[in-house]
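Hey, weird one. I pasted the DNA ligase B sequence into the form twice and got a warning about non-standard characters only the second time. First submission, copied straight from the form history:
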Amino acid sequence: MTAAPTSPPPAPQPLSVFFFDLLHLDGADLLDEPTSERLSSLDAIVPPEQRVDRLLTGDVEAAQRFLETTLAAGHEGVMTKSPTASYEAGRRGAGWLKVKPVHTLDLVVLAVEWGSGRRTGKLSNIHLGARDPATGGFVMLGKTFKGMTDAMLDWQTARFLELADGPTDGWVVKLRPEQVVEIAFDGVQTSSRYPGGMALRFARVLRYRDDKSPAEADTIDTVRAFYDRE
């Protein structure tokens, strides 16, 4: 009997540990202590090289430089915390704010879904597409219903009924690709759901661009450039 061949074990990967907060020390919970006290306790027991870089400042320019340095190091952003905030497990609360770059794209609305709940009777969730110069068509990148005010919902319901390309009594209403929308997003991620293999992360509507035609919308190549930088 011979043993079946096995793959060699993976090469060891170096790991580094960095600490950013302290919740329990010497039998005492620190959850209700302010951030400044927890960090002071952390500094007393963890050497600087094992602590996450941080800056305490009220200077906007200094904060901006710290953010730029963090981004240059390959991180997606920073977390700002109130020095007086307690630690709320499982949520950031009002004392924590994530700060990272916001990107925008001008995309074309390909279809829209009827809303539910308080959005019943409104065309809400829009399907977003980037222009494909190679085919002259559009590549879907995801959907969003975020960022829409009540006034915007009223406007887009009327507008998209005008652009309907087929029946409007189903859940999804297909549109003629004529409406450009400016979308903010946090990044581009891999997705097997959409034909381009990519999807926008945390997409939300900023405004509709009636000053732009679909031929002026951003291309799938522009989206792919964002993806390659991730």
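That's the output from the first submission. The warning seems to come from a hidden character in my clipboard, not from the data itself. The CA atoms of residues 55 and 66 lie 7 Å apart.
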